[in-house]
Amino acid sequence: MTDQQQPMIHEEGLPGHESTLEPKPDWAPRYPGSGRLAGKVALISGADSGIGRAVAALYAREGADIAILYLCEHDDARKTVEIVEREGRRAIAIAGDVGDKDFCDRAVAEVIDRFGRLDVLVNNAGEQHPDKDITDISEEQLRRTFQTNIFGMFFLTQAARPHLGKGAAIINCTSVTMYQGSKELLDYSSTKGAITAFTRSLSENLVGEGIRVNAVAPGPIWTPLNPSGGASEEKLEHFGENTPMGRPGQPNEVAPSFLFLACEDSSYMSGQVLHPNGGTVVNG
Fold first, then answer.
1. Alpha helix (H) ranges present in the chain?
2. Which of 70, 179, 188, 268 is catalytic?
3. Keywords in UniProt for this one (predicted)?
4. Residues 153-170: what's their mean pLDDT?
């Protein structure tokens, strides 16, 4: 066993391709842009599909150039590049594993070389593997889930930090499972708890530098993550029905939370978490 586990892309089709998913998730922004990110550069991990794609599309509509980090879904990444370019903005797609510190360093260096600046970092990439019993979670899976979901956030933030100045924003993706728990996602929900603590601590660390750090905790959202193996068949059959709204959310219902936290609309917020989760009331 090495210190770094390789991506578990062999397991049941993970991380999943949006191009093969039916019905297709709704990623398109719902309203005209108003220049809230004009002239900014945003780096978004996991931006090839799902929530990341919707955030990339919305940020581009609001005037930002976009760096798309993704693992191996080249078709989805090309589609996201096209979406950004149709909004009149520049885009680059960089394939690699955010759990690899060297990749994160190289990716940020490429963003700076291409765009000359970095204003918004969105730590969105993540993976999950359902298990009904804690004894079913292999050491490989446990290490890999933490490596992607929380180590990757540390690595990307470390690489980006020298390029983030006053007015920059970092937005991390946590989950409703951090607040509710999840009996089938023990390792995943544990990483989401770590992400929330990371967000609050990093906010305290950087707020004096004029850099705001916040998070978004989505509920059940229709993305490739769950139907590609991230949820059991039983859970998928009734996906999102346990929310007060009685349905799963769409990526473009989550993206506005990421926009709000990236722009000056949230200039007096740091260390906070927004909850687009279908009406589920949680603490925090």
1. 50-61, 74-86, 101-115, 139-146, 152-160, 176-180, 186-206, 233-237, 251-262
2. 188
3. Oxidoreductase
4. 98
